[in-house]
Amino acid sequence: MAGLILGIILVLAMFQNIWSYRIIRTLGQTYLPVYQSVDGRMLSYLLVFAAGVLLIFVSASDMRRQRCYRLFESVAAGREWVEIRELAKEGHCGSARARKYVREMIRKKRFHPAAMDRQEGMVLFGTEMIEAYTKAWERWQDKCRACRSFKVTLKEQERALMERQKAAALERYAEQIRDHKIRKLLSKLSRQYCGELNNPEQIHEALARLERAGDDCLYHVGRTARQYIEMERLDDNAAETQAAQKFRDFLENLLQE
Question: Which residues, at least 6 apart from 123, have a Cβ–Cβ distance to it below 8 Å?
């Protein structure tokens, strides 16, 4: 703030001196070119004027930076991680500038201990969180190398991840179902596909089996499971209905493929 005020004072004072000196130099002359009116004294005024402009710019930039620092600290307070885009939104700046400020804060230890992830999409806080991320990244790299060795493309890896998330949701649905057989079949199906889709050697076979079972098979299984959970809430004898038997048969056939 002091630098900004000093810069404004210098700019105003030098502007007045330059204007006054120019008038004095051209007094009584019809026309005097600008380059002839610039002597040593005028040059010193111009240099101080330029220094004042530079000081204003640097001070304003530093004030904006300090403001973003404080906003970033308030957003990150008490959290284990925060996304760069969230910091950029709160700081009213672009993602590139937010990353630059975060690097500066880490270097100046205003964020400590802290580190950015490999993609520089979020900031991690705390030694435990950083170590956990590092180990997860190393596991992911190992898995990527294994996928490349089994010729699993990036598109197939992305699809396997999406299908594995759907399969994991089936386990949560199974915990809410009262019928023992449906719960057992649904849980077994979830564990089977979670294991196969997490194993680079079995990804091709698991994806091919899902394609044969039908379009977005695991999603439809999850939707049917949610509908059956709702049936059990409304009807204590839901397990004895024809819909329940069809669901059991469908799960058995899916496991036998």
Answer: 76, 81, 82, 84, 87, 102, 106, 111, 114, 115, 116, 117
**pLDDT tens digits, one per residue of 39-70:** 566 677 777 878 888 888 888 788 888 899 99
Residue-wise pLDDT for 148-164, tens only, equals 888 888 888 888 888 98
Class of domain 78-149: mainly alpha
Residues 6+ away with beta carbon under 8 Å from 241: 231, 235
* pTM for the model: 0.53
Alpha helices in the chain (DSSP H): 2-26, 34-37, 40-76, 84-91, 95-107, 127-149, 154-175, 180-197, 203-213, 217-234, 242-256
Q: What order do you get walking across the sheet with 122-125 strand by strand? A: 81-83, 122-125, 114-116
